[in-house]
Amino acid sequence: MGMEILLRGVALPLIFFGSLAHSDDRFLTDPPDYIKPCKIADKNFIKCSTDSIQQLFDKLNTGIPGLDSIKSFDPFHLNRIKITQGNSQAINLKVELANVKINGFGHTNVLESVVFPKDYSWKTTFMLPVMKLQGDYSLLGRILLIPLNGRGQVFLDADNMTVVMHTKTHLYEKGGFTFYNVTNTRVNFTLEGLKSYFSNLFNGQKQLEDSTNKFFNDNWRMLTDALYTVITQTIEDILLDVLKKIFHYIPANFFVTDIPTPEQLYGKTKEKI
């Protein structure tokens, strides 16, 4: 599988309020009221952490003061996604999405937030009551044995999507604080329904287009399996982009008050970022 993604705003300079660690890298130096501090040594840490991450997602709806690099969380915009996948009879597909808008992350319901003290990676489970994706598509290949070659607009509407996100981090020090460097996100999901519509699937053959879209909606579980890589890759890159920006701005100490320094965790001094 190959994938190329360009995220809107990645090339913009990061300009934050707070004290300077470097001339172009500002961060919070006082704990904000929208984060609940937790101790990983406490027996109720998971509940505390779950509440804290819920508060963080809620704050993203109105915007985190000083974090100007996240222009919009709901809707979230992607410029372009390219995915090639296929090694089975069910799917052999090249997809390009452009001008993509995703709605739904503003209603994120965090079910559980686990932090592993061995390496401070995370396992976060959350539910999106509705996730809507729309954009321009170009498609070549086969879905559910149906040969497709078209370009037009795509609409995906997922119901009650439960996402399990595994996040890898590397601790680093900046200005006397410990920070998370979010290096990777990997997600799995389940959902309770998927409505879809692809316009111009067959270059203007409306009857064939309508019957194919009906087939996709009647067989939404099979379509979900066929588009699983497309959907997971989209979610992963949205979350990686957002989490990198948040956790370079807000010290990890404000989330986990007893988090170790990089030297304490790794046994030697790591290079500062």
TrEMBL record:
Keyword Ribosomal protein included in the entry's annotation: no
A GO cellular component annotation in the UniProt record: extracellular space
Keyword annotations: Biological rhythms, Signal
BP GO annotations: circadian rhythm
SMART domains: JHBP (SM00700)
Signal peptide location: 1-21
A Pfam family recorded for this sequence: JHBP
Family of this protein: Belongs to the TO family.
The protein, known as: Hemolymph juvenile hormone binding protein
Gene source species: Glossina morsitans morsitans (Savannah tsetse fly)
